[in-house]
Design goal:
Its cofactor is pyridoxal 5'-phosphate. Its EC number is 5.1.1.1. It catalyses: L-alanine = D-alanine. By secondary structure, this protein is α/β, with parallel strands linked by helices. It has 2 domains: 201 residues, Alanine racemase (TIM Barrel); 90 residues, Lyase, Ornithine Decarboxylase, Chain A, domain 1, CATH 2.40.37.10. Helices cover 26% and strands 23% of the residues. The chain contains 11 helices and 19 strands. The protein has a 7-stranded parallel sheet. A 6-stranded antiparallel beta barrel has the order 11-14-17-16-15-18. Helix 1 crosses helix 3. The chain is elongated and about 75 Å long. 45% of the residues are buried.
C-alpha cells in the first residue's frame, strides 16, 4: 500500500552510504570490505542499500535471517550473502534454495550442515559470550573436512578502544585462525576497523558506520545518511502562558506560532527527542512533548511555515542518541514503515 501524500518522508542518501563504505574499505587495506545490511539495511532498505554498495564494489553482505535473503530478490552480480545466525537443522532445506551461505554458530549446526557438502562460514566466540563455537570446539577437529569460506568472530567493546577485551579477543581469534583453515578470516565490525590494521585480517564487516553512526576510521567525519521531512498539518497561535502538548510541558513566554507536524514516536522519532526543524533555512526548535503521531515546533520566526508546507526535521544520530538515551542502532532500526521513502 503506497504511503499517504501527507506521510512523513524518509530521505536516504545512498551516495553517503557509499562514501562511508569507501572510508572503511580504505582503512581495511588489502582485506575485503563487506557490509552489514541486516534488519532491512539498519531500517533504511536493504535492497537499495545493497544495490548502491554493489555498484561501488562491495562484494560481501551480511544479514541475520534467511527470510532477509529472500527479501533481497536477485542479487547483484558477484555479491555473496552470509546469514549470521547460521542454519538450524529445520532451516537447511530452505537454505539450500537461496543464494547465501550460513555462518554456523553451534556444533549441532555444523553437524547438520556437513551433510550438504556445501561451503559455509563459522562463527567463533572469543569472549563476547554471544553466538559462536567456543575456541576449544573450533580447534577440536569438529571442523575437519568442512569447506570453510570465512572464519568469523565479533568484538564486544570497540566503542571503548582501550578496553582490554579488544586485545584479548584479538589474541584468541589469531590463535584459532592459525589452527583452522579457511579462505578468509573476519573479526572487525565498524568499530573494529577503527582499532587499526591488527584487527582487520582478511575481511571486515562494517555496519553502523555505513549509515553515518559511530566513529570513522582515522577520525574522518562520516557522511550523514538520513533526513526526515514532515508535513505541517496546522499552524496555530499560542498566547503567552499557553501550554503546548501533553502535560503542557512547554508554556509560551511570548506570542508563539506553533506548527503541528505529522511525525511522532510511532514513526521512530523518539518521545524524548530535543530536536529541531528547518523551514526555509530558519531553525525552529521542537517544543512540547513528541506524541504518537504529532510533533510541535516553534515557527514564530519562520513565516514560510503554513498549513500544507513541509519542515525538515533534524536527525543527527549522535545528538539524537544523547538526547533520547537510545543507541544509534535503535534509532535507525526503529524508523517505522509509515514514511514515504526516497533514495538519492
Amino acid at each position: 500500500m503506497p504511503a499517504s501524500p501527507l506521510s512523513a518522508r524518509l530521505h536516504v542518501d545512498t551516495a553517503a552510504i557509499v562514501a562511508n563504505w569507501r572510508r572503511f574499505a580504505v582503512a581495511s587495506g588489502p582485506a575485503d570490505c563487506g557490509a552489514a545490511i541486516k534488519a532491512d539495511g539498519y531500517g533504511l532498505g536493504a535492497r537499495p542499500v545493497l544495490a548502491a554498495l554493489a555498484a561501488a564494489g562491495c562484494r560481501d553482505a551480511f544479514v541475520a535471517h534467511w527470510d532477509e535473503v529472500a527479501a533481497l530478490g536477485p542479487l547483484p552480480e558477484g555479491v555473496r550473502v552470509a546469514v549470521l545466525h547460521g542454519a538450524a537443522p529445520a532451516e537447511i532445506g530452505m537454505a539450500m534454495t537461496l543464494p547465501a551461505r550460513p555462518v554456523l554458530v553451534t556444533a549441532a549446526q555444523v553437524a547438520a550442515w556437513r551433510a550438504t557438502g556445501r561451503p559455509c562460514d563459522i562463527m567463533v566466540d572469543t569472549g563476547m559470550n554471544r553466538l559462536g563455537l567456543s575456541p576449544a570446539e573450533a580447534v577440536s577437529g569438529l571442523l575437519d573436512g568442512l569447506a570453510v569460506d570465512t572464519l568469523h568472530s565479533h568484538l564486544a567493546c570497540t566503542e571503548e578502544p582501550l578496553h582490554p577485551l579488544n586485545a584479548a579477543q584479538r589474541a584468541v581469534f589469531a590463535d584459532v585462525a592459525a589452527r583452522v583453515p579457511a579462505r578468509r578470516y573476519a573479526l572487525a565490525n565498524s568499530g573494529g576497523v577503527c582499532l587499526g590494521p591488527d584487527y582487520v585480517f582478511g575481511l571486515t564487516r562494517p555496519g553502523i558506520g555505513l549509515y553515518g553512526g559511530g566513529a570513522a576510521p582515522g577520525g574522518a567525519r562520516l557522511d550523514p545518511v538520513v533526513q526526515l521531512s514532515a508535513p505541517v498539518l496546522q499552524v496555530r497561535d499560542v498566547p503567552p502562558g499557553g501550554g503546548v502538548g501533553y502535560g503542557a510541558s512547554f508554556v509560551a513566554a511570548r506570542p508563539t506560532r506553533v506548527a503541528v507536524v505529522g511525525l511522532g514516536y510511532a514513526d521512530g522519532y523518539p518521545r524524548s527527542a530535543a530536536g529541531f526543524g528547518v523551514v526555509d533555512g530558519v531553525v525552529c526548535p521542537l517544543i512540547g512533548r513528541v506524541s504518537m503521531d504529532l510533533t510541535t515546533f516553534d515557527v514564530t520566526d519562520a513565516p514560510a511555515a503554513r498549513e500544507g508546507s513541509w519542515i525538515d526535521v533534524g536527525f543527527d544520530l549522535a545528538a539524537m542518541a544523547a538526547a533520547s538515551g537510545r543507541s544509534q542502532y535503535e534509532l535507525l532500526t526503529g524508523l517505522g514503515r509509515r514514511y514515504a521513502r526516497t533514495y538519492r
